[in-house]
Amino acid sequence: MRRKDTNFTVSFDANGGSGEMDSVSVTEGEVYTLPECGFDAPEGYKFKEWSYGDLIKFATPGTNVTITGNTTITAVWKELPPEVYTVSFDA
Q1: Helix, strand, coil abundance in the chain, percent, nearest 5
Q2: For 1-32, what is each residue's pLDDT tens digit?
Q3: Would you say the pTM of this structure is higher than 0.85?
Q4: Whole-Å CA distances, 73 to 11, 19, 36, 68, 70
């Protein structure tokens, strides 16, 4: 049985993005607020949400989650729509 003062590491995975986000030490059972994404999106994508947990849960920045073990928070990216161009003809 773990003691309540056990610390766990929350780390971040760019999932194809670039840049780095520092890991955080969190006490077992502590409510942790998911941060804004600090990664740069892959080309043609933008940040959508975070995924985490064994059962793959999804949440947006600002969501409170309870940490019960070492946890990796993974960036989820959304493909940007293609650019639309206007073509005009000049007689």
Answers
A1: 0, 45, 55
A2: 445 578 999 999 999 999 999 999 999 888 99
A3: no
A4: 6, 15, 12, 13, 10
